[in-house]
Amino acid sequence: MRRAMARAAVGDDDYGEDPTVNELQLAAARLLGKEAALFVPTATMANLIAVMCHCQRRGAQLLLGREAHLHVFEHGGVAQVAGVHSQALQDLPGGTLDLDQLESAIREAAGSQYHPRPELVCLENTHSSAGGRALPLGYLKEVRLLTDRYGLRIHMDGARLANAAVAQGVAPAQIAQHCDSVTLCFSKGLGAPAGAVLAGHRELVVEAWRARKLLGGGMRQAGVLAAAACVGLARMEETLRRDHDNARRFAQGVQALGSPVCSVNPAVVETNVVLLCVGEGWPSPAELCARLEAVSTEEEAETGRAVSLRLLPWSARCLRAVWHRDVSAEDTELAMDKLRFVAEKCRQEREAVS
Predict the structure, then answer these.
(1) Label partner for 12 (CA 20 to 30 A): which of 156, 227, 274, 320?
(2) Domains of the chain, earliest start first
(3) Interval 123-134: pLDDT, tens
(4) Strand order across the beta sheet in which 153-157 lies
């Protein structure tokens, strides 16, 4: 990937003259089944641009899940910058929305002169807060039919859309066909250092270029970044399938461990994300993450090695593990060993106190 970056043919992308960026945009548009695509620095910017293009009246309303990345982790950009109101609905465990509730919210707003005008539904696929779950294809079709009845558009935050495609064994375009626009991030599972695309019909992408310029996202010799994204796309299926296998193997190991400290349901591990539930009365997710990351002479003496495992405290009783191209099957086994060691130490400490 670094060799590809060093050898990339470049030009001025702000004038549409960078050949590597142009190649990437064409490849991404084909992959996603859209007329055109625009390369931007981040998926957060791509999502914001999509909302700005779809909701051009200030005070318009978008509907999305309460746990959606766009709603929780993107600094409320749709409100701060785009002047768009978000109606957040309760997510179901698999990352979907209750369609009856969604329709009720749309109907209530559409029929009222007091509510913001509903214009856009945003979906996230895979759904990060649901543990990397892929949205079912039948569900996407139902959302499309619903929004068509009310004249709304759909944007998909597909930062990890490639993971969903690999997990479901379909082309990304088969997923994206139900949406008016879609984001794809290159710096997650695809392993590039930066970059994302926003794809949709040609007129939307023309407008997106203007929004990118407004947000300071125009770049010059961006081919050095686009080259890395091209490599990521070329290796997509092989890389992501390995990540999914490693995540599933880890989840099965946690289940086999049978520790009261933490548990996981392997049946819901569909892609490269594993959510571990921490049992009541045991160390908090933050404390458990600190223990997993720390190394000690005691660990080295007992196991013959010292392993630093970095997980993320995700909620009050949950922590998150994510696999990527730099985490091997051997690394996954080491992670399992470290979790086993920490869980056993927690058990011994409890017994000593009691």
Answers:
(1) 156
(2) 2-234 (3.40.640.10), 238-353 (3.90.1150.10)
(3) 999 999 999 999
(4) 36-40, 196-200, 181-185, 153-157, 118-124, 61-65, 85-89
